[in-house]
Amino acid sequence: MGTATAAAGLARTGGGAQAGVAGASSLAWLSAMVLLWGLSWPATKLALGTVPPLWLAALRFGSAGLCLFVFVALRGQLRWPPRGDWPIVLSVGGLQMMTFTGLGMVAMQYTDTSRAVLLAYTTPIWGVLGAWLLLRQVPSRLQLLALVVGMSGIALICSPLEMDWQAPGVLMGSAFLIIGAMAWSLVILHVRRHRWVAAPLALAPWQMLLATVPLAVLAALIDGVPQPQSVTMDTNLLALLFFIGPVATSACFVISSEHGRRISTFAMSNFTLGVPMIGVLGSTLWLGSRLSNLFMIGLALIMAGVMLAALASGRAQRR
User: Fold this and answer.
1) How far apart are the first and last CA of the chain?
2) 261, 276, 205: which is closest to 7 by C-alpha?
3) Confidence (pTM)
4) Overall average pLDDT of the 20-30 stretch
């Protein structure tokens, strides 16, 4: 989380001027970020065994937002968002954080983590389709190839050959993940066109607050207010909540903002391709997920489609 806002936003606000000069320290931090983002998926699956999905999403952004409010305040950058940045605050907070994460956590109750992280990171593929349909940007041959290859992988992953359509909630879960990925792709298109006034990191706590409040309200309406006796706050759950929120969300957002500016947006996009791979690997090692041959073929097709979309985007930026 945070890649679209921090990396693309920094390129718009001057960070792109430093692209390509990343040192070993920045590459190490970015590698740690990708690792943490990837492992946050199996960690979320474990936490969902105790905490309802919408409450977990609210706790994630509530705790991460609180950490970022403190961090930004200590740096002397805490300000009410400028009027010119309110559209991007609403977009990122409402679509990327609230919609993408809320739908994703609900979906993870009904689907395995490997499929969840893979479908969630089809965002670049939907971005090509969104730019074509909404912005009338005719895709290049490379983008069309990315669409065909990526969509083939999505169709295979969601086909009755790969998953049991009769299982309760399976189709709904996959649909929620795809809708969430589409919502995130709209945010990316918005980020690329937004004229930034404040730095993305300074806006992040407000975006997380914007996501937390409606998520908490929805959670209270749908799942009710948790009673103290109904939730066992043991050490393992507290560790999972701390990892999902302050570490994998707020700390990784800071890493993306501070070190993502030292590489190009295209390089950052390629860097984060490791997130779904780590998520899939973590779910097999940590949760015991089994990967079928068809899933592996779908995985290869989706990753190829995402890489082709990133390559096409990089070529467009250079031109």
Assistant:
1) 28
2) 261
3) 0.89
4) 74
Token pair, residue 181, equals 């990925």
How far is C-alpha 124 from the chain's CA centre? 11
What's the full length of the chain, in residues? 319
Task: DSSP for 165-228, please give it.
Answer: TTSTTHHHHHHHHHHHHHHHHHHHHHHHH---SS-HHHHHHHHHHHHHHHHHHHHHHHH-PPPG
On whether the CB atoms of residues 118 and 157 are closer than 8 A, the answer is yes
Confidence of residue 40 (pLDDT cuts 50, 70, 90): very high
Alpha-carbon distances of 230 from 51, 105, 134, rounded to whole Å: 10, 20, 46
Dump the DSSP string for 238-266. Answer: HHHHHIIIIIIIIIHHHHHHHHGGGS-HH
Return the percentage of the chain with pLDDT > 70, whole number.
89
Which is higher by pLDDT, 188 or 270? 188
pLDDT at res. 5: 52
